Amino acid sequence: MEKFSERVRELRKERGLKQAEIADICGVKVRSYQRYEHGDGYPEVPGLIFLAEYFDVSLDYLIGRTDKREVNR
After folding, report:
1. In whole angstroms, what is the distance from residue 16 CA to residue 29 CA?
2. Average pLDDT over residues 47-64
3. From CA 30, how far away is CA 18, in angstroms rounded?
């Protein structure tokens, strides 16, 4: 899930959020979130789903399985 760290960082920056702000939104400690962006850790499935929904992208996009951001609804 190497792309996950790149994508979550890119999406956070697009929203103009600091790491501490998105960590608070996700309900995790700042250090935990920093691990996501550095590829040293990953959220569990509910956390992945939360991030995908928050950024309005597909889970497949978030984890790097596709380059299409669209969510199929």
Report:
1. 19
2. 95
3. 10
What element of type H or E holds 11? helix 2-14
Contact 37/5 with Cβ under 8 angstroms?
yes
| Dihedral sign from CA coordinates of 27, 33, 37, 41 | negative
Q: What span, in angstroms and rounded, lies between the C-alpha atoms of 19 and 9? A: 9
Token pair listed for 66: 């596709």
Token pair of 67, please?
Answer: 């380059």
Assign 72 to helix, strand or coil: coil
What are φ and ψ of residue 51, in 5° steps? Answer: -60, -45
Give pLDDT tens digits for 2-42.
Answer: 799 999 999 999 999 999 999 999 999 999 999 999 999 99
Local structure of 18: helix, strand or coil: coil
